[in-house]
Amino acid sequence: MIVITSPTGHIGSQLLEILLENSTRGEELRVIVRDPAKLPEAVRSRVDIVTGSHGDADVVDRAFAGADAVFWLVPPDHSAPSQDTPFSGFTAAAAKALTKHRVAHVVGVSALGRGTPVADRAGHVTASLAMDDLIASTGVAYRALTNPTFMDNLLRQAISIRDNGVFTGTVAPDRAAPMVATRDIAAAAARLLIDRSWSGVGEVPVLGPEDLSPNDLARTMSEVLGRPISYRWESLDDFRATLTARGTSEAMATAFVDMMRAKENGLDDGVVRTEATRSPTTFREWCEQILAPAVGA
């Protein structure tokens, strides 16, 4: 049995779709979800559902009973009082349940940066790496999918791209770095969950096919959308102000700012792209298939 957390999110929903397509293997699937109504009806009839938060001790205790593997992804919490609360704090109950139920394999969504000079002051990434260590300490076989910035994050700016032809960020316009589509993360997770011949603890980087700068993104979006799209740089102070104006706690705003500063200083540059770490979806493909319909809508 495979347990999937966050099955209605960008990554979890795509992972669940892949695993259901491979259901001929006879693997039972169980999901933890706050609101089962958010699952498609066709999905609800094919999975075992545990209702609740996977940060709740009773919920993960029920969900992990009889499980062979778990897909672990923590939900965002912009109101948290510290950067560790949404990561290690949220995961603490699950770590106990993994040990209690002797779950053998866990695949988690994490971030690039381990071993870089800025990893210990990288906000959300620092907290994510500490969460990985917590899961690994339970003795499970663990693979952390270590990711750079998601292409899909641009969907948060779909209205600005549509109405103003502008997207915003804190990275220098010509600063190239890896980017990945969430569907490639889901595919990497599925491969590990379906073939559980691996053991021990390790990281699986999912880097996307090429490094891209904001200027590169603007050029590709302009070509795909058929109109000029430009990048607007904002300072980290302005970024913080925007976050807090939207209700983000001071601790979480600091975590975001620290992460973006670390990215500018090389946080995502520590892994060499190889055939093993290169994921397939190009930014142009993602724009054509995901962004263009979203902006059109």
Structure description:
The chain is of the alpha/beta class and 297 residues long. Helices cover 42% and strands 18% of the residues. It has eleven helices and twelve strands. Strands 3-2-1-4-5-6-10 form a seven-stranded parallel sheet, sandwiched between helices. The chain has a three-stranded mixed sheet with strand order 7-9-11. It has a two-stranded parallel sheet with strand order 8-12. Strand 2, helix 2 and strand 3 form a beta-alpha-beta unit. Helix 1 packs across helix 7, helix 4 packs parallel to helix 5 (124-136) and helix 9 (236-245) runs antiparallel to helix 10. The two termini are 38 Å apart. The mean pLDDT is 97.
Quick structural gist:
The chain is an alpha/beta fold. It contains 11 helices and 12 strands.
Rounded to an integer, what's the Rg over CA atoms?
A: 19 Å
Tell me the helix content: 40-55%
Number of helices: 11
The total strand number stands at: 12
Major beta sheet, strand line-up: 3-2-1-4-5-6-10
Q: CATH topology of the domain at 2-151 and 180-208 and 271-279, anyone?
A: Rossmann fold
Assembly status: single chain
CATH homologous superfamily heading of the domain at 2-151 and 180-208 and 271-279: NAD(P)-binding Rossmann-like Domain
Distance between the termini: 38 Å
**Proportion in β-strands:** 15-25%
